[in-house]
């Protein structure tokens, strides 16, 4: 199996317009089919709202098998860790309620901070803060960066020290989700938790034992444009911790130069088949994990 085939038939990390991607779920599925991708997971940030449309479109492309997914943003000190939930039983009412609460908590908090800053004479535009956040969910670092851009403070450090820190006048509390809790949430809803883009995780090697103890199943190894050295290192780590080496392009459809096309990075087909078996075992059913093509 070649970890660096130019066109992978498997892509298990993809975004659409229901989070920060630019293609609708339908357009993305059409592109996947056009690119000859055989197995794909749509993994929007903290939402599964694009999946029904994607599955509907997938019916027109019998060569493509789609599985439900999500990318949860979990909190670690000073940043975020992203956790994919593949084969998630996403129609569950309790899961959907949790996700709504979770999204509203994040957005509500960031908007709450903006309100307080406006009261302090430092108005910021929501759209600008969102742009700063890019792929991540809006958090304090992005508010701080927007404050620097506006010239309200000289540095993000000053923004935290004077306004956004725990005792600052613009601080707003919110519910947090640790990576271990994100794993538990995915497991509770029959999904397979997979650590996304592990190269971005600070202290990855120190963090892995706790994530594995919580039930982590896989880790992205064949990700976007990871170079052979990175792939090799992550592959060794995955083997060491008995994690399934997953991956995908994290495609957002931004159309930027050098953006990796869906289907150009991902694990071998055997890895997908292994994941599918694991998901089936966990669901304890004989029927396929993917919604039936009726
Ligand atoms: Zn991510
Ligand atoms: Zn992503």
Question: Can you characterise this structure?
Answer:
There is one protein chain. This protein is of the alpha/beta class. It has two domains: 10-92 and 189-283, TIM Barrel, CATH 3.20.20; 110-164, DNA polymerase, domain 1, CATH 1.10.150. The protein contains ten helices and seven strands. A seven-stranded mixed β-sheet has the order 1-2-3-4-5-6-7. Helix 1 links the parallel strand 1 (10-11) and strand 2. The model is unreliable at 1-5 (pLDDT under 50). One zinc ion (ZN) binds at residues 71, 82, 135, 196-197.
Hetero groups? zinc ion
Total helices: the number is 10
Number of domains: 2
Name of the CATH class of the largest domain:
Alpha Beta
How many E strands? 7
- What share of the residues lie within helices? 40-55%
Rg from Cα: 20 Å
The name of the CATH architecture of the largest domain is Alpha-Beta Barrel
Dominant shape: globular
Instruction: Please indicate the percent range of residues in DSSP E strands (runs of 2 or more).
Output: 5-15%
Name the poorly predicted regions: 1-5
Could you give a short account of the major beta sheet?
Answer: 7 strands, mixed
Mean pLDDT: 91
CATH third-tier fold name of the largest domain: TIM Barrel
Strand order of the largest sheet: 1-2-3-4-5-6-7
Tag the structure with descriptive keywords:
single chain, disordered N terminus, alpha/beta, 2 domains, globular, DNA polymerase, domain 1, binds zinc ion
